[in-house]
Write a structure and sequence with these properties.
With about 180 residues, the protein is α+β, with helices and mostly antiparallel strands. The protein contains 5 helices and 7 strands, in the order αβααββββββαα. The protein is elongated, with a radius of gyration of 19 Å.
Amino acid sequence: MTAAVLMVAFFSSGMFTIQADVRDSVTLDAGYAAVRQYLNDPNVFTRNFPGILSIRQVGPRRSEWTYEVKPPLSSARRTSYLVNERVADEHTVIFETDPGMNDYMYCRASVAATTDTTTSLMLELKLHSSRENGSDIHFLAPLFGQKFISARMRDQLQGDLTTFFTRITNEVRSQTNDAHRQ
């Protein structure tokens, strides 16, 4: 009976979607203008966010982000996202693929002064991948299921975001210390 259930799960058809949504914030020891200027450099992300391999401009407000995710029990999977940049308000920028794409990415970054010398950065990230068959994502995906793989992807994305915040906190602190020494 167990073998029959596994075979049905493995060969069942239908759209297979995995998704991860995370949101977190950090307070950086630098003024608002310095943090905004720092974050305008896309190399900040390729240098400090695990898995972001490249960000390449393809138009005035369009770029290609290549992100590598390591699914459970599998080798790394690279996905390229063509994202559009838009300004939501004076403190918030959004990077988002066109809706309805099989590989969807959404990144909202909000920067706000908390004091004259500290600035808050909030990042909200969403990744969604849909395929006709789960085996197109990973050969064992139909067996593990969408919820399991989505949970692992969310764990990785949260860990990557935590690492990113730690790295940029150290980098901003180093830049601020260098500026004070000059």
